Amino acid sequence: MNLQYIGLDEIKGPLIFLDDVEGVGFEEMVEIKLPDQPSRFGRVVQIEGKRVAIQVFQGTQNISLTNTKTKFSGHPVEMSLSKEILGRIFNGSGKPIDGLGEVYIDETRNINGHPLNPVARVYPRNFIQTGISSIDALTTLIRGQKLPIFSGSGMPHNELAVQIVKQAKIAEDQGDNFCIVFAAMGVKNDVADYFKRQFEEAGVMHKVVMFLNLSNEPIIERTLTPRFALTAAEYLAFKHDMHVLTILTDMTSYCEALREFSSSKGEIPGRKGYPGYLYSDLASLYERAGIVKSAKGSVTQIPILTMPNDDITHPIPDLTGYITEGQIVLSRELGQVGIYPPVGILPSLSRLMKDGIGDGYTRDDHSSVSNQLFASYAQVQDARSLASVIGEDELSPVDRKYIEFGKLFEKHFLDQGFETNRDIIDTLDLGWDLLSVLPKDELHRVDEKVLDKFYHHEKAVERFNIVTKPIINELKGDERHE
C-alpha cells in the first residue's frame, strides 16, 4: 500500500524528517511532491520508532514544512536496465544525460544488490590485460578481482583510468563479451568532458557504460553513483554473461559525501570524522565484484582513491586495503621526475595474480620475471640509499650495476607513456631484457632452466647501448684477487 503524508516535521541539510509514520521500510523509495515545482525523490535512511529520516536526492532547497506531500512507494531505489545501456551516459542517479532518450526497460533492479552466497562464488582466474607493463607483469589484474589504485592529489590517476579503459581486454576468444562500467564521482566539468572526449576519440564508447556525478551536484547523488554503476555491471555480467570491468573514481569523494551525510544525521563520528560504519559501507560496494557458478560472466573492480596528504594509513585507503585483494600505489617521486604511469612497484601487489598467470594464462615464465623484477628493484633502492651516504663512486661493481639496472627499468619499463599499449608477451620480453643487464648469478629468484632459456646479456647490452667493459673488468679483477 502506498502511503502519502502532508507536511514535514524538520528539515536538516539534505534530510527531511517525518513523525508518526508507520509501515515503511529502510531504503524505501520516496516521492516528494512540491507545489508549483517538479517532484523530487529520496529514500528512507533512518527509522527510529515512528520517526523517519528521508534523504532527498535533489537537495532540500525551497522545500516547505507545511504543504509538502511525501509519498512512500513500497520498494527500494531501483534502476531500469537493458543491454541498451552499453554506449550510454547517465548521471549519478541513473538518468540518461547523453540526449539519446530513455533506455528501453528489460528489467528493474534494486541498486543495493543482492547478497551472493559465498558457496556460489568461483575463485577468480584468467587475467585482464591493461596494456600497462607495470600492472600486467607485476600487479596483474585477475578477472573477478577487486584491485584498487591508491593515488594522491594532482597525480595522473584520471589519465591512468582512461588508458585502462582504452586498452583493457581479455582473451581473444572471449573479447566480444568484454565491457567497461565507468563511474566518476564528484568530478569537475572539465574532467567529465575529458573522460567523454577520450572514450569517443578512442572509439571505445560502444563498450562503455558511463555514470557521471559532478562536483556541483548534490552529495546525496554521489553516495548512489557507485551503486547504480555496480547494478549495471551485475546485470551485464550475470544476465548477459559479459565480463565487466568496473572503474570507480574517486572513492575519496564518495567517502567524504558519506561523512557529510552522516554528520547531517547526527551520528557519532569515528576516525577523522568518518562514520563508524565506513568499513561495512565500503565492503557493501567492493564485495559486489566476483564470479558466480550460475553465470559465465564476471565483475572486476578497480576503485581509484586519492589518499589525503599521501597518507596510506588514512581511514579510506586503510579500510580499502583490508577489503580488497591488493593495491596499485602511484608514487609521487616517480611522477615528479616525469615517469608515467608512476606506479610504485614495491608497495604495490596483487594477491590473486599467482593463480591467474603462467602457462595457459599468460606465459610460463611470468611468475619468474615478476619475482625477480621485484627483488632486483628492491636491491636498487638499497644501492641508492647506500650511494646517498658514501657516494656512487664508492659502491661495489655489483651495486653500481643495480643502479644502472634501476635507471633502465624506470626509463624503459615504468615510463611507458599514455599512448603505448604493450601486449603481455612484449612486456615479459622487455622484463627479460632488463634482467639480462644484471650478472647472471644475481638472479636468485629464477629457476636455472628458465634462466638458461631467457637470459641474454649480449642482446640486452646491444638494446640499451650499455658500456659494460669497465664493470666487467672490475668484476673479473675482483675474482682474480680472490
UniProtKB/TrEMBL annotation:
Q: Which domain of life does the UniProt lineage start with?
A: Bacteria
Keywords carried by this UniProt record: ATP synthesis, Hydrogen ion transport, Ion transport, Transport
Q: Could you tell me the Gene Ontology terms of the biological process aspect for this record?
A: proton motive force-driven plasma membrane ATP synthesis; vacuolar acidification
Domain (ATPase F1/V1/A1 complex alpha/beta subunit nucleotide-binding): give its ranges.
131-350
Q: Does the keyword Transport apply?
A: yes
GO molecular function annotations of the record: ATP binding; proton-transporting ATP synthase activity, rotational mechanism; proton-transporting ATPase activity, rotational mechanism
**Record domain ATPase F1/V1/A1 complex alpha/beta subunit N-terminal: where:** 10-72
Its biological purpose:
Produces ATP from ADP in the presence of a proton gradient across the membrane. The V-type beta chain is a regulatory subunit.
Which family does the entry's similarity section mention?
Answer: Belongs to the ATPase alpha/beta chains family.
Q: What is this protein called?
A: V-type ATP synthase beta chain
Q: What is the lineage of its organism?
A: Bacteria, Bacillati, Mycoplasmatota, Mollicutes, Acholeplasmatales
